[in-house]
Amino acid sequence: MENEGARPAPRAVRLDHRQVRVLAHPLRMRLLGALRVKGPSTATRLAELLGTNTGATSYHLRQLAEVGLVAEDPDRGTGRQRFWRSAHDVTNWEPTDFDDDPDARAAIEWIQSDQVRHLAEHAEQWFATQHEWSPAWRDAFGMGDIFMAIPPARLEALKAELWQLLDRYRNEADPAEPGAEQVQIYLAAYPLLKEFR
């Protein structure tokens, strides 16, 4: 018997070669992210939110729709006003998924680099504004690191377990809970720098 209070599992997509090539664009990444965080919206509202023009936003939404990453929301909008929504809540891939396609491999490398750039910008914004947050939030936010020696299979298992934990917390989250804020959590694992090996 299903738990009546349980939220539906997040809709996930494993990127294919076409999707990754289309997604590897700064505005398209931002559009998809905005639809996932803010929910369905029009090209005009998205253009205002992202500081671009409606023509560019409309064009890039159509490109994302052609590969199934966004879709029109038929329950919203009237006449010429079209609402768009993310077709998925989560995007998955493994870098080796694209080893046989140099263009897709270059696209996924760009996407990964863009994620790192976004993390750096995000951290800089936090450092510039952290004094505006309560002590509880300043202590809760932040980052850390840990060093370990681990084979690839165990690292994959560790990542899978951490994602399960993050998914559980996300599914249990209640945006109406007093004091709740939207947060973004990054998960990264990289080889130790050569000078420390």
Characterise this structure.
With 197 residues, the chain is mainly alpha-helical. It has a single domain, classed as Winged helix-like DNA-binding domain superfamily/Winged helix DNA-binding domain (Arc Repressor Mutant, subunit A), CATH 1.10.10. It is 49% helix and 8% strand. It is built from seven helices and five strands, in the order E-H-H-E-H-H-E-E-E-H-H-H. Strands 2-4-3 form a three-stranded antiparallel beta sheet. A two-stranded parallel ribbon has the order 1-5. Helix 3 packs across helix 4. The relative contact order is 0.12. The mean pLDDT is 90.
What distance lies between the first and last C-alpha atoms, to the nearest angstrom? 52 Å
Largest sheet geometry: 3 strands, antiparallel
Find the CATH superfamily: Winged helix-like DNA-binding domain superfamily/Winged helix DNA-binding domain
CATH topology tier name: Arc Repressor Mutant, subunit A
- What are the secondary-structure elements, in order, as H or E? EHHEHHEEEHHH
**CATH-defined architecture:** Orthogonal Bundle
Strand line-up in the sheet with most strands: 2-4-3
Proportion of helical residues? 40-55%
Q: What's the structural domain tally?
A: 1
Rg over CA atoms, rounded to whole Å, is 19 Å
Number of strands: 5
* Percent of residues in β-strands: 5-15%
The coarse overall form would be globular
Quickly give the structural class: mainly alpha
Low-confidence stretches: none
- The whole-number mean of residue pLDDT values reads 90
Count of helical regions: 7
CATH class type: Mainly Alpha
List the helices and strands and how they pair.
Blueprint: E1 12-14, H1 17-23, H2 26-38, E2 41-42, H3 43-50, H4 54-66, E3 70-72, E4 83-86, E5 90-92, H5 102-129, H6 135-140, H7 152-172
Parallel strand pairs: 1-5
Antiparallel strand pairs: 2-4, 3-4
Helix pairs in contact: 1-5, 2-4, 3-4
